[in-house]
Amino acid sequence: MLERGCAERSEQRRTASVETEPRRPSWNIRSEEVAQLAVVGAGYVGLVTAACLAELGHRVTCIEIDAGRLTALEAGRMPIHEPGLAELVSENSRNGRLRFTGNFANISDITSVFIAVPTPSAEDGAADVSFVREAVELLVQHARPGLLVIMKSTVPVGTSDAIAKLPAVLDAGIEVVSNPEFLRQGTALQDFLHPDRVVIGAESAEAMGRVARIYASLEAPIVAVDRRSAELAKYTANALLATRISFMNEISHIAMAVNADIDDVARIVGMDRRIGPAFLRSGLGWGGSCFPKDVLALTSAAARYGCETPILRAAYEINQLQREYAAQLLIDALHGIDDPIVAVLGAAFKPNTDDVRGSPALTIAKRLLGNGVTVRIHDPFALANASDIVAEIDCRPDAYSALEGADALLLATEWEEYERLDWTLVRETMRGKTVVDGRNVLNGVHLTELGFHYKSFGRPAHNGNGNGTHHHTNGSAPHIAGTSME
Ligand code: UDX
């Protein structure tokens, strides 16, 4: 899905993966029992799953029907930017544990197949499972009896049950298991190889045991449940995390109104062990391929069962409002300026990925463009993907070039390099003084001292919005890093 056309863009991506991917850590988690596995789909989840299963010691065939993507993978080129993935794929391809194919006929010796194909949002927000169904149809034609189909794709509750009951699936002696993924982009290898839990939804103890043995070398609790509970748990996890963020974003407006500091509020509530510190950061809100899609899909599925979901609807709406609020802050700051220019720093929906799906940066850019604003954008990895979606934005190769003569700056993605900018130089480079810190990561005190008009999401006005309290990007508790921006 992230595959893009032009050579220049592929070049950007190739360079990116060479320069930034860290040396491959030793995961040291080999399985004693080697399984013959296949993974359908070499997208984000499929590729990570295939590479990590091979890393566990299994023999894995990854089936990708997109010929362009398949050729690229066979040549060692990654279709996505994910730290460490290129190395893991390359090493496991070299040692013969991982291979790629476009042909389902190549699975005759396979005992278990993971389905990891996209389930995009349909018009009404429901998850579209047609790719899953197509994959199952192809598998049925080539499966050997007793094949286990393991559902990794995020599917509406009841999908695995429905597939298990298809006559062709029953005739082929195929059993279906739900095994949802909880991978975050940017830390997907870590999340796969050191998970908080492995969830297996199965109807028979035999199938449960077979899947559990695939993961046996991981030090993680196995949660054995029925298929429907596994499927609902996946949606619930993402919807709950998204709701936490929206809740804090709602509180951030109250914080601004009463001149309190949302960073301190988040730190205090996060220290309550019943709450915990992760996913309390306010700002532009959530994007990506999962949270928006899954919140919508759960809302839509609930409606079909006649269940009310006011919390999910509010979480989604607040998330949209954050973008609107940021755009309006910028439009207000540009009032009276002829031919205004805004520099947007960051296009990816979060750092350490080139994924722009659901990215607040692009929603806001479109809104600004619609208001006659020139929008320049920089991102270390996601520029090509951004320009595919919003052709009118002016992509710049580095942050300073985006900032040259700009009237306002929007920090949309908290890439580390933006926190290390030379703000004195930025001040000289920009025409205007407005800085909208969409991720509450900049040192507002320092920026205010330099003469910027610093605006954030719930930091108090009395100390220049932002007292140097700085969030970890991994969602752990904020810590004081007073000089982080100097
Ligand atoms: C998410 C889930 O975390 C993962 O388990 C699931 O399988 C896929 O969806 P991902 O989309 O990679 O992973 O991103 P995540 O790190 O969860 O962040 C989602 C969004 O929330 C990002 O846009 C991020 O910027 C935003 N966010 C996160 C906040 O606004 N505040 C926070 O405190 C944390």
Summarize the structure in words.
The protein is α/β, with parallel strands linked by helices and 486 residues long. It folds into two domains: 7-225, Rossmann fold (3-Layer(aba) Sandwich); 237-480, Rossmann fold (3-Layer(aba) Sandwich), CATH 3.40.50. Helix content is 42%, strand content 13%. The chain is built from 19 helices and 16 strands. The strands form four sheets. The chain has a six-stranded parallel sheet, sandwiched between helices. α19 links the parallel β13 and β14 (453-455). The longest helix has 32 residues, at 227-258. It starts with 6 loop residues before the first helix and ends in a 6-residue tail after the last strand. Residues 1-23 and 464-486 have low confidence and may be disordered. Bound molecules: uridine-5'-diphosphate-xylopyranose. Residues 181-185, 238, 241, 245, 279-281, 283, 285-288, 290-291, 349-350, 475 line the site of uridine-5'-diphosphate-xylopyranose.
Strand and helix layout:
Blueprint: H1 7-20, E1 36-40, H2 44-55, E2 59-63, H3 67-74, H4 85-94, E3 98-101, E4 112-115, H5 130-142, E5 148-151, H6 159-164, H7 167-171, E6 175-178, H8 188-193, E7 198-201, H9 205-214, E8 222-225, H10 227-258, H11 262-270, H12 291-304, H13 310-333, E9 341-345, H14 360-370, E10 374-378, H15 383-389, E11 394-395, H16 399-403, E12 408-411, H17 416-419, H18 423-429, E13 434-437, H19 444-449, E14 453-455, E15 469-470, E16 479-480
Parallel strand pairs: 1-2, 1-4, 2-3, 4-5, 5-6, 7-8, 9-10, 9-12, 10-11, 12-13, 13-14
Antiparallel strand pairs: 15-16
Helix pairs in contact: 2-4, 10-12, 10-13, 12-13, 13-14
The protein binds uridine-5'-diphosphate-xylopyranose (UDX).
Uridine-5'-diphosphate-xylopyranose binds next to helix 10.
